[in-house]
Design a protein that fits this description.
By secondary structure, this protein is of the alpha/beta class. It has a single domain, classed as Rossmann fold (3-Layer(aba) Sandwich). It has nine helices and 13 strands. Strands 3-2-1-4-5-6-11 form a seven-stranded parallel β-sheet, with helices on both faces. It has a two-stranded parallel sheet with strand order 7-10. A two-stranded parallel sheet has the order 8-13. The longest helix is centred in the middle third of the chain and has 21 residues. The termini are far apart. The chain binds nicotinamide-adenine-dinucleotide (NAD) and uridine-5'-diphosphate. Nicotinamide-adenine-dinucleotide binds next to helix 1 and strand 5.
Length: 319
């Protein structure tokens, strides 16, 4: 296939480029570097099956030649207001990537008769009242709350994707991604894993926001990419959750990172400096992915952290 990947210079997009090239496909990467990093694609320079366009997906997209699949991953994705690259600080760009970018990429898929995949998110469930979250749960989102620019853009994107499927017969897929980590994450984007792993490698206490009782589950990137590829090759049009169902509190997560890295500095509790509406519990129900895709994560937190450490050390100049 000849596959267009938006957000190609980002964390997930760059791993997707690698995986789909390794499967023998031709990949067209597109990114405007608003939160991504050209370094994530540097190793693909000279690859004859890879081309790259620096382009903002909020604007009309023209891709010469045929396109067999479009994977729309372009969007700011970090929730931490302290990071300049967080969606809190890029509110209009985030809404445009989710709304106009989804419209433009669906237009490309429609024009080329291509398969389409939208990268959606667990954030469409908001601060969930159902636990764990099944795909049938419609969510608990405040349309004007602090996270709305991201959550509502993705909810609009899902609605538009289903509208193109139902109205124009576009062969669409929606992946609802839960917290994922691994090499090529932005060390400065303020998410829990980059903060904690950086702090642990520097021998500093880990900054737990609030009392650390809020829960998440963390999926290693290779597991996630495997699920995404299986979904791309499937015929499933309804949303599919992909993430690790192993739920833990943020305090347990911090302690696990300290244990794995041998950091003795412990944790420090900070007031919840983030927005209100930090979801209190989050855990994917992955029954649909298990049933339809035969997929579940295989890589333990310990193994995933070990695989991530060399990248962090290199970025931090520690080796
Ligand atoms: P990222 O910031 O590393 O990658 C996003 C990429 O999109 C960046 O390279 C950025 O420059 C690019 N981009 C943003 N707006 C653009 C625009 N208008 N035009 C062109 N390029 C643009 O983030 P990520 O973690 O790799 O996330 C990728 C996708 O997966 C996002 O859509 C995000 O919402 C979704 N997602 C990620 C996670 C996660 O845990 N990483 C969880 C849920 C959903
Ligand atoms: N968090 C924390 N310390 C940090 C960064 C994040 O305690 O240094 C918490 C944050 O409040 C949230 C959880 O870790 O409850 C996961 O945050 P992240 O930014 O990774 O992603 P989210 O799941 O909120 O999208």
């Amino acid at each position: 296939m000849r596959i267009l990947i938006t957000g190609a210079a980002g964390f997930l997009g760059s791993h997707l480029c690698d995986r789909l090239l390794a499967e023998g496909h031709e990949v067209i990467g597109m990114d405007n570097f608003i939160t991504g990093n050209p370094q994530n694609l540097a190793h693909l320079a000279g690859n004859k099956r890879f081309t790259f366009y620096e382009h903002d997906v909020s604007n009309y997209i023209f891709v010469p030649g045929k396109v067999d699949a479009v994977l729309h991953f372009a969007s700011p994705a970090s929730p931490n207001p302290k990071s300049p690259r967080a969606y809190f600080n890029l509110p209009i760009q985030t809404m445009k990537a989710g709304a106009l970018g989804t419209h433009n990429t669906l237009g490309v898929a429609k024009a080329h008769g291509a398969k389409y995949m939208l990268a959606s998110t667990s954030e469409i469930y908001g601060d969930p009242l159902e636990h764990p979250q099944k795909e049938t749960y419609p969510g608990n989102v405040d349309p004007i709350g602090p996270r709305a620019v991201y959550d509502e853009a993705k909810r609009f994107a899902e609605a538009l994707t289903m509208a193109y499927h139902r109205t124009h017969g576009v062969d669409t897929r929606i992946v609802r991604i839960f917290n994922t980590y691994g090499p090529r994450m932005d060390l400065e984007d303020g998410r829990a894993l980059p903060n904690f792993l950086k702090q642990a490698l520097l021998g500093q206490p880990l900054t737990v926001y609030g009392d650390g009782s809020q829960t998440r589950s963390f999926c290693y990137v290779d597991d996630l990419i495997e699920g995404i590829v299986r979904l791309l090759y499937s015929d499933e049009h309804l949303p599919v959750n992909l993430g690790n169902p192993h739920e833990m509190t943020i305090l347990e997560f911090a302690e696990a990172i300290n244990r794995i890295t041998g950091n003795k500095a412990g944790v420090v509790f900070l007031p919840d400096a983030r927005s209100e509406r930090d979801p209190q519990r989050r855990q994917p129900d992955i029954t649909r992915a298990r049933t339809i895709l035969g997929w579940e994560p295989k890589i333990s937190l310990e193994e995933g952290i070990r695989r991530t450490i060399p990248y962090f050390k290199k970025q931090m100049g520690l080796e």
